[in-house]
Every structure is written in structure tokens, then in C-alpha cells.
Specification:
- With 231 residues, the protein is an alpha/beta fold.
- The protein has one domain (22-230).
- Helix content is 41%, strand content 12%.
- The protein is built from 10 helices and 7 strands.
- Strands 2-1-3-5-7 form a 5-stranded parallel β-sheet, with helices on both faces.
- The radius of gyration is 21 Å and the shape is globular.
- Pfam families: Lipase_GDSL_2.
């Protein structure tokens, strides 16, 4: 005869597991990790720390493309992440953006036109953020300062701190209007002193070096919105 099943024991061994968060990171070379041959950039470094099978995530998807500007990130936003593994059948939980530096560059000289005219930048930025917020929660990681003395980049692009400030402030305010957390790396790095931040850039004066990405990782890991994702 089969033993009777004690109803009080049913499903006690079944412990529901929380699914890991799916996080997409979209942007330019700062997301891609250019300049960090050791760790692959801050996104890759963070992904490696979060990918242990003993944890519940989050799962990071690096969707950085070198040279991207805001309009390019906006235009590829939804199509990109819908073809990434587990995201094919669902929206991400969080999207993290880091873009805008390439828009601020001036073409051919320090007095040339901005690569993306400021009004066009604001229009594309607002459109991108609005689109992203309709899909999931949004965070924004700002740009790091550049070394003007190393310009031009690739013989034709001139990046300046003044242009960076103008474009990053427009981004910060757009995020503020939408209650999107914004990490102002530009101000954080400048406040640590010129020697500190210049020593963490590659010889091109634009991309962080290995030490720069190590510093970026710590800044981003210690940012409260990121800490909330991990726990």
C-alpha cells in the first residue's frame, strides 16, 4: 500500500528563486571598453564580478559601439537588445546609457562645428531617454574629462572640456527632468585633480587607460543605483 502524503509537507522543498536582472548597457567606447586590454572596460569588469553561478546576477549585456553618438544609440536601442539571448522574449529590467562625448567634438579645428549640433543633440537625447523609459528603468553614466593638449583625435576631432561641460550638463538636466539617476563622472574626476585624471587617460587623451577603467569600476560600483541592482 502506498504511504499517505502529508499535505503539510507538500511544496515545502520548493523554494522559488529570484530571476537575475537583465541589464543592457548602451553607448560609445566608454561602454565598449576601448583602452583597457587587461579588463575589457568597466562593463566587462563588472560583468565578470556578477557572473558567478553562485549569485543571482544581474546579467549584463554590453551594447557599446565605438564612435557612437546619441542619435545612433537611439536608433538602435530596441532592435539591439531584442536580439540578445534571454532578452529576445522579454524587455530588460534596466538600461544604462553612457553616450554624448562624440557629439561634443568639434570637426577640423577647435573653432569648427560640433559633430552633433547642440539643438540636434538635445532633441535626440530627449527622444532616446523617453523611448528608453517606456521600456524599462533607466540609469545614465556620464563622460570622463579629456586632455585637450592631446587633440586632435584621429587627425580631425577636437574635444574640449568646455564643450564636454555643455553637453554633459544638457544630459544631466534631461535626466533630472525624468528622475533618471545620473552619475556625473566629469565633475567627480575633475575634483580629484588634474594630475589624477590625466594619469588615467590613454595617450590619445580621450579614452581611459587600465588604471582609468579600474577607477571607473569603483566609481560605478559605489554608486547607489548600481548597488541596488546587485542586492
Amino acid at each position: 500500500m502506498q504511504a499517505a502524503i502529508n499535505p503539510t509537507l507538500i511544496n515545502l522543498s520548493v523554494v522559488p528563486q529570484r530571476q537575475p536582472l537583465k541589464v543592457v548597457v548602451l553607448g560609445d567606447s566608454l561602454v565598449y571598453g576601448f583602452g583597457d586590454p587587461q579588463g575589457g572596460g568597466w562593463v566587462e569588469r563588472l560583468r565578470c564580478q556578477w557572473m558567478s553561478p553562485d549569485t543571482v546576477g544581474p546579467i549584463l549585456y554590453n551594447l557599446g559601439v565605438r564612435g557612437n553618438r546619441v542619435i545612433q544609440v537611439r536608433d538602435r536601442l530596441e532592435q539591439e537588445f531584442r536580439h540578445r539571448g534571454e532578452l529576445r522574449n522579454r524587455l530588460p529590467d534596466v538600461s544604462i546609457f553612457s553616450v554624448g562625448l562624440n557629439d561634443s567634438a568639434r570637426v577640423q579645428s577647435f573653432q569648427g562645428r560640433n559633430y552633433t549640433e547642440f539643438n540636434d543633440f538635445e532633441t535626440a537625447l530627449h527622444s532616446m531617454l523617453d523611448q528608453a523609459q517606456r521600456l524599462c528603468n533607466v540609469l545614465f553614466v556620464g563622460m570622463v574629462p579629456v586632455d585637450e593638449s592631446k587633440m586632435p583625435f584621429q587627425g580631425c576631432l577636437y574635444y574640449t572640456l568646455a564643450d564636454q561641460f555643455r553637453y554633459k550638463e544638457a544630459t544631466r538636466l534631461a535626466c533630472l527632468e525624468r528622475n533618471i539617476p545620473y552619475l556625473d563622472l566629469f565633475e567627480i574626476w575633475l575634483n580629484r585633480g588634474e594630475y589624477w585624471w590625466k594619469s588615467r587617460l590613454c595617450s590619445d587623451g580621450l579614452h581611459p587607460n587600465v588604471a582609468g577603467y579600474e577607477a571607473l569600476l569603483e566609481d560605478i560600483r559605489n554608486w547607489e543605483p548600481i548597488q541596488k541592482l546587485a542586492y
